[in-house]
TrEMBL record:
<feature type="domain" description="B30.2/SPRY">
    <location>
        <begin position="296"/>
        <end position="484"/>
    </location>
</feature>
<feature type="region of interest" description="Disordered">
    <location>
        <begin position="327"/>
        <end position="372"/>
    </location>
</feature>
<feature type="domain" description="RING-type">
    <location>
        <begin position="15"/>
        <end position="56"/>
    </location>
</feature>
<dbReference type="GO" id="GO:0008270">
    <property type="term" value="F:zinc ion binding"/>
</dbReference>
<feature type="region of interest" description="Disordered">
    <location>
        <begin position="253"/>
        <end position="275"/>
    </location>
</feature>
<dbReference type="Pfam" id="PF00643">
    <property type="entry name" value="zf-B_box"/>
</dbReference>
<dbReference type="InterPro" id="IPR001841">
    <property type="entry name" value="Znf_RING"/>
</dbReference>
<protein>
    <submittedName>
        <fullName>TRI27 protein</fullName>
    </submittedName>
</protein>
<keyword id="KW-0175">Coiled coil</keyword>
<keyword id="KW-0862">Zinc</keyword>
<dbReference type="Pfam" id="PF15227">
    <property type="entry name" value="zf-C3HC4_4"/>
</dbReference>
<feature type="coiled-coil region">
    <location>
        <begin position="200"/>
        <end position="242"/>
    </location>
</feature>
<dbReference type="InterPro" id="IPR003877">
    <property type="entry name" value="SPRY_dom"/>
</dbReference>
<dbReference type="InterPro" id="IPR003879">
    <property type="entry name" value="Butyrophylin_SPRY"/>
</dbReference>
<dbReference type="InterPro" id="IPR050143">
    <property type="entry name" value="TRIM/RBCC"/>
</dbReference>
<dbReference type="InterPro" id="IPR013320">
    <property type="entry name" value="ConA-like_dom_sf"/>
</dbReference>
<dbReference type="InterPro" id="IPR001870">
    <property type="entry name" value="B30.2/SPRY"/>
</dbReference>
């Protein structure tokens, strides 16, 4: 019978939420019982009120009443199911046994030792100087402290719940903003694409009209010229036939039919009618069409330059002192390099200066960046000093040869140049840049240089092939006061 004690309990001994026997059972406003953790989880996010999960009865306020009797019955059933003897609970044990040493009722509580004492223990030397309180008062004091701490924890929990809700709302707002931004970008680019397509169709239609006008004019002109040529052919044939006549017939003049006597003044003189050519007018239309589209081409080119300036991802470049020329001084943090030549710089006295197009980064006063680029779009901004000479760009080492290929631009002998390993190209920017942006599109093999303050293109190299090799930022300074 003891073994089946738990089985004999009615179904009401099970929590309707977890379907297990009650743990710390409590009753709510409608009288139904639940495990305290279960009902607290259900009521963690109340809406209009606190509803019973079983009968759905709603109360405006939360009410949890401990069911000690039910908990006691369940504990007795558990003990019986395990074959344990029913021992008195802690309260009964205190009431029956009291102080284990003196067998007296426990009446007071020692705050210093945190122990229950009887009257004899209270007067002992060990507790005589301690603060003791009657049991109800001590229990009430500690309950108040616990309730205060519990309320503080609940307040902190409520604050965290509110903070979590606020963070979730802000996250959703951020997601909504990013989605709105995505839709705005898609809409703008879709509108731009449709506008460009429409304008392209319009221009192509105008070109087709011009082509049709040219074809029509060509056909009309060819028809007129053919008619005139046919008339001249007929006149040539007529004169040739007249020349083949006998002399008497040839010289005979018949005034009745209006034939004039032959003579030098009347032979071979024809009034040739050349049709007016439509080509000058068509050429004017083509020229006007071309002039109309110059502004569009400049706008599109400027837009492409802006994309080339804005699209690459900015990267920080740190100079590598181990690659620096002996006459260069690299800052300890690798953020700058300046000329510090104790001896005459390369080319001093001959007026040539450094020549990266001929020597490469190994012999010129140059230094490489630590960071290499092996893919994607990257850019970095470089501040240049107005004094001395400088150059900057990218370098790629040719595998197995120890030689370097350069794509760079810079100032040398007061002249701006675009410099590669093979050639120099003179540049004429509108103004000397103070800050230069190097933009690298690895896949397209494109290296471009911009005035970073004006956001204007200085020079862009034609597409190169990097062949899967790492491309390093490259810098050169030369002469007194030069610094990057």
């Amino acid at each position: 019978a003891a073994a089946g004690a738990m089985d004999a309990l009615p179904g009401e001994a099970s929590c309707p939420i977890c379907l297990e026997y009650f743990r710390d059972p409590v009753s709510i406003h409608c009288g139904h019982h639940f495990c305290r953790p279960c009902i607290e989880r259900c009521w963690e996010w109340p809406t209009a009120g606190f509803a019973c999960p079983r009968c759905r009865d709603t109360a405006p306020e939360r009410s949890l009443r401990p069911s000690r009797e039910l908990a006691r019955v369940l504990e007795i059933a558990r003990r019986l199911s395990r074959g344990e003897a029913l021992a008195p609970g802690p309260e009964e044990e205190e009431e029956e046994e009291g102080c284990r040493r003196h067998r007296e009722p426990l009446e007071v509580f020692c705050k210093e030792d945190g122990a229950l004492l009887c009257a004899i223990c209270r007067e002992s030397r060990a507790h005589r100087a301690h603060t003791v309180l009657p049991l109800p008062e001590a229990a009430r004091e500690y309950q108040e402290q616990i309730q205060a701490g519990l309320q503080s924890l609940k307040d902190e929990r409520d604050k965290l719940l509110e903070f979590r809700e606020a963070e979730m709302r802000r996250n959703w707002e951020c997601l909504e903003k990013t989605e709105a931004e995505r839709q705005r970008i898609l809409s703008q680019f879709q509108g731009l694409r449709l506008s460009l397509e429409e304008h392209s169709r319009h221009l192509l239609a105008r070109l087709r009209d011009l082509e049709r006008d040219i074809g029509k004019a060509q056909e009309e002109n060819a028809t007129s010229l053919t008619q005139e040529i046919s008339r001249l052919d007929s006149r040539v044939q007529e004169l040739e036939e007249k020349c083949r006549q006998p002399d008497r017939t040839f010289l005979q003049v018949t005034r009745d039919n209006g034939t004039e006597p032959p003579g030098p003044a009347g032979l071979g003189q024809e009034n040739i009618q050349l049709p007016p050519s439509p080509l000058p007018e068509l050429e004017k239309k083509i020229h006007h069409f071309r002039e109309e589209n110059v502004l569009l081409e400049e706008t599109l080119r400027s837009f492409q330059d802006i994309l080339m300036f804005e699209l690459p991802e900015k990267m920080a470049v740190t100079l590598d002192p181990s690659t620096a020329h002996p006459q260069l001084l690299v800052a300890p943090d690798g953020s700058s390099v300046s000329w510090d030549g104790a001896q005459d710089p390369p080319g001093a006295g001959d007026g040539t200066g450094p020549d990266p197009a001929a020597d490469g980064p190994g012999t010129d006063p140059s230094v490489l960046g630590r960071e290499g680029v092996t893919g994607g779009r990257r850019c970095w901004d470089v501040q240049v000093a107005p004094a001395g000479s400088w150059a900057l760009g990218v370098a790629r080492e040719t595998p197995g040869s120890g030689e370097w290929e350069l794509w760079s631009m810079g100032l040398c002998q007061d002249q701006f140049w675009a410099l590669t390993s093979l050639e120099r190209i003179p540049l004429f920017p509108l103004r000397a840049p103070r800050r230069v942006r190097v933009a690298l599109d690895y896949e397209r093999g494109q290296v471009a240089f911009f005035d970073a303050d004006e956001r204007s293109l200085i020079f862009a190299f034609p597409a190169a092939a990097f062949k899967g090799q790492s491309v390093q930022p490259w810098f050169l300074v030369w002469g007194e006061g030069s610094r990057i």
